[in-house]
Amino acid sequence: MSFFRNLLTSCAAAALLGLCVAMPALAQEDAAPKDDKVIAIVNGHEIRVSEVQMATDDIIGQLPDMPPKLRYPFVVEYLIERHLLAQYAVQEGIAETEEYKRRLALYQAKALRDAYFFQKIRPMVTEDMIRKAYDEEAAKLQQTERVRARMILVASEKEAQDIEKMLADGQKFEDLAKKYSLDGSKDYGGDLGYFTAAEMVPEFSKATFALKVGETSQPVKTDFGWHIIRLEDRKQGAAQPYDQVKQAIRNVLLRQKVGEVMAKIREKSKVEILDDDLKKYAEEAAKAAKNFQENKPALDESGGAAPAAGGDAMGGDNAAGDAASGKGDLQIQTPQ
Fold it and tell me: Is the pTM of this model over 0.70?
């Protein structure tokens, strides 16, 4: 797991514990448009480009599957309907109700938080910082060899020897993997994708990296059973182009900054939890977060294997995702 995947994983785990600092969505590259023109008027109210950008940032989570070219008209229509309803709410006296005042206080706090983020925290992450992080990780990737292999996992040495004989008789490795392997990679013909030596248990890595491309190993024993391994490819690590990962790196660094700023603010503030059940939950969450930080994996100098839905922020081109291929069973596990 690379530096950036570690950071993202840490935040994801913290979010499950209710500890991850909420950060305004980063839908836009720039906080304010250069040409803030009026694009629609609703009963005299002017909707400008800046309002569309803020609205997009606010509801981006609802638009992940929508093609980018459709988002703009969708958000404009969303704003038109919102202003129409807001105007009628004023006409019918809703602005004087307690319900409205409670919501206004909540939204005002959110607006102030978002404004603080864009004006104070976002400028802390500079282009030089992003480039430096990219260059450091790209250099590490280039120094690490990665291999792609297929595997057939069986329960006994006798079964592994029988597989050897079938391979010697000309049967296809992929077909035998699908038929006999106990590993999740069987659905992919035993394909584990690309990985580094450090990612797998020692016995498996030693046997795999000793092979030449196209060679098949003798039966290899690990705690998981007996393996027949075929080496498909070798290559040095390579980072994705900077422009392709720049925004992802910025988001990771920004989330770091948000956490740092929040830690300093909380140290200077007085926060009291009055609900007993909530106190208990907060204590358990704090312990879990501390345990996670103490036991999380050390920084890996490889691109790592690609997660099931693509790759990490810098590299990774696994043909089948970790979860799908079953490679996770062989990977070095972190104590819990």
Answer: no
